[in-house]
Amino acid sequence: MPLSPADLPAVRGALLSWFDRAGRPLPWRVGPEGRRDPYRVWVSEVLLQQTQVARGRVYFERFLAAFPTVQALAEAPIEAVLKAWEGCGYYARARNLHRAADVIVREGMPTTYDDWRALPGVGPYTAAAVASLAFGEARAVNDGNVRRVLARLHGERHPAEAWVQARADALLDPARPGALNEAVMDLGATICTPRAPKCGECPVRAWCAAFASGHPAAFPAPKVRAAVREIRAVALLLGDAHEAVLERREGNLLGGLMGLPTEIIRDGETPGETLARLAERLGAGVTGELGTATHTMTHRHVTLTVYSGTGGPPRSHVADAALSRLDHKALGLWERRQASLFAGA
Ligand code: ADE
Asked: Which tens digit of pLDDT belongs to each residue from 92-121?
């Protein structure tokens, strides 16, 4: 039987009492419901858009330790912000956080969905999360978890974006919008999981069309994914894992971060030719191959072959720079090489 509007109060009640009992104690969930610290909520929501909660917690604590207030964030140099964001990916988000912090310090903390939306980098999801969790505004969030939970509840295999938003708006509890949003997030993360939902523990299975179908994981139908682009590149480690030549990356491959000097292998080019081009650009010599590091981002898979070399521009202190995970993996190759040389000596 399809979920009818008459069922919504009971579904809300079941979700909220489950959340009150089983909701996860997370570091940004402090303070009275609907009146949390908007800065902490904002930072956590931006972080969690690209990171699982387990890892997001660690990054959140690190970022808050570096910038405990929006003033501290606004006053920090962008390099320090990128450094604190290291490993979180999507560095444009860190840049936008920094820019928005500056606006907030000058113009005051926004208190409504519409005013949050006006800040750099704040989309409908983040604005709805902050407005509901920190200000008690009745705004429903809509992300992958919400989409899955609602698709299953209503038995919709192909939920369109507007459909999900309309169902989420209808389900929202006007008295406890933040708690309802987080109840759906937690349900999606811990019970209504993509592949093996734990329907036996679900507080709303009595109303769930996907549960009734006997094939809950078939909802929603898998999305056709955009192809992942394969990128092959070579890098030169001039120095060691502590002091090395670093360059600021240009373009959209980890642009803005510092990294080992790198060249992408062009169509029709051999890796040897790319390496020669890189060495010539740097005025460096190549001494050996350290190995290959791979890294997968949303739409790109990078295979980076790392070489050691001599000469080239002055070295920088690696620990002071904001590096991507790909570069950390590349430097790890040097560490591994040292360890094996040492073991073999
Ligand atoms: N994912 C995104 N936002 C979240 C939140 N506030 N709590 C738990 N998981 C989340």
From this structure: 899 999 999 999 999 999 999 999 999 999
Kindly list the domain boundaries of the chain, sorted by start residue: 5-218, 229-344
Burial class (CB in 10 A: 0-12, 13-18, 19+), 117: middle
**Most ligand 1 atoms within 8 A of CB, residue of 33, 44, 181 to mutate:** 44
110: CA distance to ligand 1 center in Å?
20
Cβ atoms of 258 and 249 closer than 8 Å: yes
Would you tell me which CATH number, out of the four given (3.40.718.10, 3.90.470.20, 1.10.340.30, 1.10.3720.10), belongs to the domain 5-218?
1.10.340.30
CB of 164 closer than 6 angstroms to any ligand 1 atom: no
| Contact yes or no for 178/136 (Cβ under 8 A) | yes
What is the per-residue pLDDT across 312-340, written as a single tens digit (0 to 9) for each?
999 999 999 989 889 999 999 999 888 88
Measured in Å, residue 47 CA sits from the centre of ligand 1 at 9
Assigned superfamily of 229-344: Nucleoside Triphosphate Pyrophosphohydrolase (3.90.79.10)
- Select the highest-mean-pLDDT range: 147-156, 220-229, 264-273: 147-156
Whether residue 48 has its Cβ less than 6 Å from ligand 1: yes
Q: Distance of CA 207 to CAs 11, 14, 152, 161, 176, Å?
A: 7, 10, 10, 22, 21
